[in-house]
Amino acid sequence: MPITTLLQRDWIAAIDYRCVMGPQDAPYLERHAGYSLSYVRKGSFGCVCRGGTFELVAGSVLVGYPGDEYMCTHDHAERDECLSFQLAPALVDAIGGPDALWRRVALPPLPELMVLGELAQFAASGDSDIGLDEIGIALTARFVARSAGRDRRVPEARARDRRRAVEAALWIDENAAEPIGLDQAAAAAGLSPFHFLRLFAAVLGVTPHQYLLRARLRHAARLLAEETRPITEVALDVGFADLSNFVRSFRRAAGVSPSGFRAAARGERARFAERIAASMPRR
Q1: Could you give the CA distance from residue 79 to residue 25 in angstroms, rounded to a whole number?
Q2: Spatial distance between the Cα atoms of 10 and 183, rounded to a whole number of angstroms
Q3: pLDDT in tens, 114-129
Q4: Helix residue ranges, H only, the chain
Q5: Using one digit for the tens of pLDDT, what is the confidence trace for 130-177?
């Protein structure tokens, strides 16, 4: 089975599974190493676990509980694909919810989980300004809330917590050129990643990753307008790992390419200088 690790943190990992087994292949026993939520994004398969048989199709979620044995079957189709979030016990504990929720084995396609699953797939392709780890946390929190039959509301932030969020934003802005992850920003704020994400989004209205990306784009816009360095150098200087990601993100945010923005900025500066010169008294 081809496996690609898309994200690896101490408290969460995202793995792309692409199974090539079919009806002709004999199933075998497997074991969940820890807590996990696996979003089925393509195909179908069966899962035998805890004395029951569950059929999963696109949009379903396979729920992993530490130590549970299970067996996947492919009686009806072949080639299924899953985006799996592997969750540390500390994260599961921070999000809360009864332990029984994680023994459900599988969930059918549910709208509130499907939209997050598709958003996660979109983020995995590199076309979203939301971090894959942030979506994994949101998916887990929504799974707990939906399965428990209640919606966990974010409590109103206290003055001290609001100050924490603002100070974290200032820290992110100052260090935006560095490879900042959610765990690093949370550690700088003195909070767990889950509580930091909830607090930051509640106070500032954007996730930490969104804020980081926009800080980088803001810095890039200033450099593009003020300097003549190659666009690739600007992209690397503000924190983007590759040019294509920078160009795509900049165009999505500004509506024009970085080169188009630079040309417009130079043209505006030239016209502004002409106006100033025209308004000066002649000797």
Answers
A1: 12
A2: 9
A3: 888 988 988 888 767 7
A4: 89-95, 111-124, 132-148, 159-174, 182-189, 193-204, 208-226, 231-238, 243-254, 258-279
A5: 899 999 999 999 999 887 765 445 556 677 887 888 889 989 999 999
**Spatial separation of the C-alpha atoms in residues 21 and 160, rounded to whole Å:** 53
- Token output for 252: 């999505």
CA distance 109 to 80: 15
Q: Shortest CA distance to 58 belongs to which of 71, 45, 47?
A: 45
Beta-carbon contacts of residue 88 (< 8 Å; ≥ 6 apart): 10, 11, 12, 34, 35
pLDDT (tens digit per residue) in 27-43: 889 999 999 999 999 88
Local confidence band at 270 (pLDDT 50, 70, 90 cut-offs): low
Measured CA distances, 72 to 19, 106, 118, 181 (Å): 10, 12, 23, 34
- Bridge partners (DSSP) of residue 30 are 70
Q: 3-state DSSP: the chain helix, strand, coil percent, rounded to 5?
A: 50, 20, 30
Residues 6+ apart with CB under 8 A from 13: 5, 7, 85, 86
